[in-house]
Amino acid sequence: MEDGKPTSGTEARIVQEATRLFTERGYIATSMADIAAEVGINRTGLHYYYRTKDRMFQAVFGSVVKQLIPQIHEIILEVNSPVEERVSRVIDVYYGLFKANPSLPMFMLREMQRDFDNLLNAIYRMHLERYCTAISLGLQREMDSGHIRKVPIRFLFMTFYSLLTMPFITKNLCQYVWLEEGEAFTDMVAKWKPYVVEQIRALLEIRQ
């Protein structure tokens, strides 16, 4: 318990409901009592699994990033696959998670502003930094070998995540202004994906 790895049906439900409440309301606006009420247990029962809200947050953060980082690591380092194919698959992983948790991108932005050190410490506690380092080194090796264009890793990161998350961060605006008649938000996101792939491909393509 308390490590982001649910060990029982009740604990898994706690993490699920806490994830929903944290992402929808934010860390500050969500109380342990709120989480207990959504799960249908009392505070004592909740504290059996997670003694503090900070521990609860760590479990939520762990459940999210452990769905992402190992998969992203595996896809990105498939050096024999074309760049556009890898980018497309990485987007699918993120979009699958965002579909289940539409407020997740905004939640992560808020938490980086609220307490970045806490997020960073959680990453180190779960030993996830090794995946991030391996991804960066793998991309740098591809650049150095001439397989993809040399682009500063930080700018590649910022370009990709800006394109990836912008529709979700501005969802209300998109739904009010940009949706075509009869179009759902998920339809618009699906149509946006090829543009993201093309932008990253163009950024990394070796130019003759």
Automatic annotation (TrEMBL):
Keywords: DNA-binding. The keyword DNA-binding applies. This is TetR family transcriptional regulator. It comes from Candidatus [Bacteroides] periocalifornicus. InterPro entries: Homeodomain-like_sf (IPR009057), HTH-type_TetR-like_transc_reg (IPR050109), HTH_TetR (IPR001647), Tet_transcr_reg_TetR-rel_C_sf (IPR036271). Residues 8-68 form the HTH tetR-type domain. One of its GO terms (molecular function) is transcription cis-regulatory region binding. Residues 31-50 bind DNA.
